[in-house]
Design brief:
The protein has helices spanning about 80-85, 85-95, 100-115, 120-125, 135-150, 160-185, 200-205, 220-230, 240-245, 255-265, 270-285, 290-295, 315-330, 335-350, 350-355, 365-375, 380-400, and strands at about 5-10, 15-20, 60-65, 70-75, 75. By secondary structure, the chain is mainly alpha-helical. Helix 5 runs antiparallel to helix 10 and helix 11 crosses helix 16 (about 365-375). The N and C termini lie far apart (about 60 Å). Bound molecules: s-citryldethia Coenzyme A (SDX).
Length: about 425
């Protein structure tokens, strides 16, 4: 019998049967609306808190197979991109759809480099923050502020306008990040050095002091560039979803990127690299691991840097980042927390609590160790995630804007509250009885 790509659904409330088309392994949620008990009935909705099993979009940017630990950007496996490409090549691939040839890359890099400076007024905004302001809070605020300096960015339907904002954001994120760092330390701002590469310039704006010319250690510059590739995009993660959702209102890309930064800041998402390092510090030594694991198993603590909504096997980025950690440690000296991390991973991968929940280390488990060894303070870790992820956010944002199927995001809800109550005049209202 020819297989029909449909779902036959019988509504047992009415005995009615419905044929619902299956496309790309999914059914359209709007097809459920036809399943009604009577003319008055709104029809069925799908209910999916946390969007565990809901695709709000189709995409051609990143493919992940969480069970097989596969991650591809526009069809290229992440390990090949990390080995053969620079971060800006991968940013081009994500945003424009193909790896650039030499001439395209030179033009792409040039356009980004001419946008590394920020308006001088933004320095006053950064100066207004307290000395102990979290750099991710500063980055989120200053990215949003960029929308006030570039009102032309609102014209999102013009390809050239989008292109210019993409250059601006890719060029300015490292500068905003570095200025936030320098503000926290009370150091003078270091302006971009466009003779350096993308990550070399970031390192110079972060670490340069009175040197006339600051040159990055090549091994560290290269390692950071590869780490940026690993962080560039990850399909519909929380911050990419925020970028698409806010972008669907047709706001400018600076405001949408600020929303994505805010989502990434959370400890369950990009803030996990900061939380993971603090966790390793609290464990303190290998001897402290068993006690900590007990607390996790009791639900009193989470193993930060472990677990993933999609990867139910090894995160393919972890193997690569562990190799980069060794490269960095050859230059900076071994970070003693890595031994705790490796032992923690070894124990967790052999422990039923983690195995039964299919919890494996994710990229955040190791990235913080590298950043700490490079001399970054823990609070800068999510900022170092946001810089490269800006390429992925922009790719997702633009794809969403150009998708004819997309509309402004406006989800439904299941209402479980009270209905149709009369207002009691204030003098007659009684405080609700406690208990
Ligand atoms: C990133 O989405 C992406 O792609 C994100 C990202 C990207 O590149 O954009 O990969 C980057 O954000 C990686 C994730 C970084 N976050 C952390 O490392 C924080 C710690 N991990 C978690 O909080 C958790 O694993 C999540 C948030 C990553 C995933 O959460 P889910 O899919 O909602 O899973 P869950 O919270 O429902 O957990 C399922 C079970 C629960 O146990 P039970 O209630 O069933 O008994 O696993 C447990 C959880 O308690 N669990 C953990 C755990 N993660 C999940 N228990 C201990 N430690 C953990 N880390």
């Amino acid at each position: 019998m020819a297989t029909r790509n449909t779902l036959s659904v019988t509504d047992n409330r009415t005995g009615q049967t419905y044929e619902i088309p299956i496309e790309d392994g999914a059914v359209r949620a709007t097809e459920l609306r036809q399943i009604r008990t009577d003319e008055e009935d709104f029809g069925l909705k799908s209910y999916d808190p946390g969007l565990l099993n809901t695709a709000p979009c189709s995409s051609k940017i990143t493919f992940i197979d969480g069970d097989r630990g596969i991650l591809e950007h526009r069809g290229y496996p992440i390990d090949q991109l990390a080995e053969h490409c620079s971060f800006l090549e991968v940013a081009h691939l994500l945003i424009r759809g193909e790896l650039p040839d030499r001439a395209e890359l030179d033009e792409w890099v040039h356009q980004i480099k001419v946008h590394t400076l920020i308006h001088e007024n933004i320095k006053k905004l950064i100066d207004a923050f307290r000395y102990d302001a979290h750099p991710m809070g500063m980055l989120t605020s200053t990215v949003a502020a960029l929308s006030t300096f570039y009102p032309d960015a609102k014209n999102i339907h013009a390809a050239q306008v989008r292109e210019l904002q993409i250059y601006r954001l890719l060029g300015k994120m490292p500068t905003l990040a570095a200025f936030a760092y320098r503000h926290a330390l009370g150091f003078p701002y270091i302006y971009p050095d466009n003779e350096l590469g993308y990550t070399g310039n970031l390192l110079a704006m972060i670490f340069r002091m009175t040197e006339k010319k600051w040159k990055p250690v090549p091994a560290l510059e290269q390692a950071l560039d590869k780490i940026f590739i690993l962080h560039a995009d990850h399909e519909q993660n929380c911050s990419a979803n925020a970028m698409r959702c806010v972008g669907s209102s047709h706001v400018d890309p600076f405001s949408a990127t600020a929303a994505a930064c805010a989502a990434l800041y959370g400890p369950l998402h990009g803030g996990a690299n900061e939380a993971a390092l603090q966790m390793l510090r609290e464990i303190g030594s290998k001897a402290g691991i068993p006690q900590f694991i007990k607390r996790v198993q009791a639900g009193e603590s989470r193993l930060m840097g472990f677990g993933h909504r999609v990867y139910k096997s090894y995160d393919p980025r972890v193997k690569i980042i562990k190799g980069l950690a060794d490269t960095v440690f050859e230059v900076t000296g071994r970070n003693e927390l890595i031994d705790i991390a490796l032992e923690l991973e070894r124990i967790a991968l052999d422990d039923d609590y983690f195995i039964s929940r299919r919890l494996y280390p994710n990229i955040d488990f190791y990235s913080g160790l590298i950043y700490q060894s490079m001399g970054f303070p823990v609070s800068m870790f999510p900022v170092l995630f946001a810089i490269p992820r800006t390429a992925g956010w922009l790719a997702q944002w633009q794809e969403g804007l150009l998708d004819p199927e997309q509309k402004i995001a406006r989800p439904r809800q299941i209402y479980r509250g009270k209905r149709a109550r009369d207002v009691t005049p204030i003098d007659k209202r009684q405080a609700p009885s406690s208990g």
